[in-house]
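Intended use. Records like the one below are meant for learning the mapping from a protein sequence to its folded structure. Do not use them to infer anything beyond what is encoded.
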Amino acid sequence: MSDVLPGDVNEAGDVKSGRVLVTGGAGFIGSHVCELLTGQGRAVVVLDDFCTGRRDNLAGMPVEVVEGSVADPAAVAAAMRGVDKVVHLAALPSVVRSVEDPLATHHACATGTLNVLHAARIAGARVVYAGSSSAYGDQDVLVKHEQLREDPLSPYAAAKLAGELYCRSFARVYGMQVVVTRFFNVFGPRQTADSPYSGVVAAFCHALLSGRAPRIDGDGGQSRDFTYVEDVVEGVRQCLDAATPGCTTVNLAYGQATTVRELYDHLAALAAPHLGDRQPPAPLMAPPRAGDVRHSLADASAARRLFGFAPRHGLVAGLQHTFDWYRSLVPGASRS
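Structure written out for the chain above:
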């Protein structure tokens, strides 16, 4: 220990190691974060209770897995040992689920974030927290920027915003380095496609490849800033490796509005060549969902300015990659 400097030891007495903890690392976005970080040769620890994450999402990745919930302080403390940086993604990510069970959503999102921040403070770790565009609510301003007053419409949005407020307070009180990354509608491979809580891109791909009519909640005119997962994950990596002080909040998205009906039309065009003589089925229209916002569009200029966020894929290429991945899961299909 004679060569260890005081700044190399955290509050718990552990020597800093360069290890990164990814909470929710077996989930859709989390597994892509793990893939990027391990591909760079980093030591990665995953904390996941596999409530929504899947073990096969981590297949072939050299990660250490701690099975447990962020709502369990002991599990969080065990996973945090020797960690220098944290990507906190663990949550119950669904507006619909939060309306059905707000207590479970609060427990996972708000209490879980408090536990992670507390353990990260002891470890002396920098934290990137996966916030949500749902914090903005349904405001008159079309383009959502970080200076807007938050107006959550659902228990999920409120719980995610509560996590943000804990991030701000821990940065102010304890001098922690925290970045809140507000995600807009992230899509891509490994997103669950056959659940009532599935993201719309995954659900549309699954339905079209199964020959079933996708369901559109509302009139289809609601718009979202759909962002491909690999672009989001690179943005997270940039935030993780920066050295910004205090708590910084940035949107990670394209700044491009697409209506749900336009999304269906684009994916139907991708599906058409693979349906033989059949035409893509027309969507089924359903009532709007409680807690949904009408329009969600990001101003991503702060992420570009502060962290160099520069997406490489974009919407069209991202949809093609995603559709090809879901098609590869269909028996007998090829990724042509």
